[in-house]
Amino acid sequence: MSCWMPGCPALSMCQGLAALPITCLERAKDLKTRLGILLHKPELGHRIGTSSKLQLGSRRRDSSREVLEWRESFDQLLKSKSGVTAFHTFLKTEFSEENLDFWLACEDFKKTRSKTKLASKANRIFEEFVQSEAPREVNIDHETREITRKNLSGATSACFNEAQAKTRTLMEKDSYPRFLKSASYQDMTKQATSRGISKRSHT
User: For the RGS domain, which residue ranges apply (predicted)?
Assistant: First the structure.
């Protein structure tokens, strides 16, 4: 577009460009060239997209394997964050999630290093889960309850060990087998198995 009439927009634009330093114009041309090269490389975007899909596929395979591992042992379930979440959701349907919450609170308690925090945490856990008629009382025998009460006088990271072990055994013998037979877990295993079959058929 060219125009030599006074007040013409094209003339003003040309005059404005002419006033710019040569280095700015050169940089602008260089940037335009680089953008042009990138725009004509669709395979770059394809590679990025393919990489993302591969990573997503890998995560799905890992999670599928993990779901199937939960039925191998109760330990395998407790080692998995998603396994603990799924088990907790199941326990809620049976109104017994306090057992797992207590077990998790004990695991967190053991990591406490400060003696002051150890004592206050111990009292809080005891009042919430262990003492008679606690808001979220776990199902342990009277003897274990009393041993735990005595342990509070000199709270150490091991003061809930016996109560935690009893609660864990109860979950492993009682709730865990029902979880494995539950409709929610059966659905998860079917999905995990079908993903595994689909993967093998594509290799």
Answer: 73-189
For the chain, domain boundaries: 60-190
CATH H-level, domain 60-190: superfamily: Regulator of G-protein Signalling 4, domain 2 (1.10.167.10)
The average pLDDT across 47-51 equals 39
Task: Please tell me the distance from the alpha carbon of residue 108 to that of residue 102, in angstroms, as a whole number.
Answer: 10
At 125, list the tokens: 């856990």
CA atoms within 13 A on the CB side of 174: 13
Cα separation, 161 vs 107, in Å, equals: 10
Q: Is the pLDDT of residue 195 over 80?
A: no
Query: Residues 59-69: pLDDT tens digits?
Result: 555 589 999 99
